[in-house]
From TrEMBL:
Cross-referenced Pfam families: TetR_N (PF00440)
Species of provenance: Sphingopyxis indica
Protein name: Transcriptional regulator, TetR family
InterPro entries: Homeodomain-like_sf (IPR009057), HTH_TetR (IPR001647)
Residue ranges flagged as DNA-binding region: 32-51
Origin superkingdom: Bacteria
C-alpha cells in the first residue's frame, strides 16, 4: 500500500502498527479500543471511523503481520550471500521473533484462529515449502537421502522445533541460539567449515 499521498491510508497503517504492539503486550482480551486510540493520539470516536470493532483492528494487524513475515522469510532464504544455515535461521527469525517472550501468545494464537481461520498456518506452510526448496538447492537434502528423509520433512522438522522454542525461550537471543543448533544439525555438511573437514558429515 502506497500511503505517501493518502493521509487516510497512512493513518490506518499508524493505527495497525500501534495496535500490534498493544496486542503483543496485553493480549487481545485485555486490549481496549481506548488503549489503541490513546497510543495513536486520536479519540476513540475517531478510531471507530477507521475500524468499527476491536476484532476488525486485530484482523488488520494479522493481515499486515503475515504479509511482512512472508516477505522477510522469503528474502532471507533468497539471500545468496549467506550460507544455508544463516538463510534458514533468518527465515525463522522473520516468522517467530516477535512471538518470543510474549506473555499472551497462546491467547493471541487462539484469537487469530477464531477470527481469521487458518491463515497463519497457511503462511507458515508456504514458508516451509520455500525452505524445503532452499535445502534442496544448497545440497542439504541430498545428504539425508540415505536416511530416507526428504527436504520437506527436514523443513517441517525445523518448523516444529521453532514452534516449541518460541514458546519456551525467554529472549530473542535464547531463541536464536537454540534454533541455530537445530538448523546446524540439519545443515551440517553443506556448510563451508564442514566441507573443509574430511570425513565429517551428518
Amino acid at each position: 500500500m502506497n500511503v505517501a499521498n493518502d493521509p487516510e491510508a497512512a493513518r490506518q497503517v499508524e493505527i495497525v502498527e500501534a495496535a500490534t504492539g498493544i496486542f503483543l503486550r496485553y493480549g487481545f482480551k485485555k486490549t481496549a479500543m481506548e488503549d489503541i486510540a490513546r497510543a495513536v493520539g486520536i479519540s476513540r470516536q475517531a478510531l471507530y471511523l477507521y475500524f468499527p470493532t476491536k476484532e476488525a483492528v486485530f484482523k488488520a494487524v494479522i493481515s499486515r503481520s503475515l504479509a511482512a513475515m512472508r516477505a522477510e522469510a522469503r528474502a532471507a532464504l533468497a539471500h545468496q550471500d549467506h550460507d544455508i544455515e544463516e538463510r534458514v535461521l533468518g527465515a525463522f527469525e522473520a516468522l517467530h521473533s516477535k512471538a518470543v517472550g510474549v506473555e499472551h501468545l497462546g491467547e493471541l494464537i487462539a484469537t487469530t484462529a477464531t477470527l481469521t481461520g487458518p491463515v497463519f498456518r497457511e503462511m507458515e506452510e508456504a514458508v516451509v515449502r520455500d525452505m524445503a526448496q532452499a535445502l534442496d538447492a544448497a545440497g542439504v537434502a541430498a545428504r539425508w537421502t540415505k536416511a530416507g528423509v526428504s527436504s520437506m520433512e527436514l523443513a517441517q522438522h525445523l518448523a516444529a522445533t521453532s514452534e516449541g522454542i518460541k514458546f519456551s525461550a525467554k529472549t530473542l537471543g535464547e531463541y536464536l541460539d537454540r534454533m541455530r543448533i537445530a538448523v546446524r544439525i540439519v545443515c551440517w555438511g553443506a556448510l563451508p567449515e564442514a566441507n573443509s573437514r574430511s570425513g565429517r558429515a551428518p
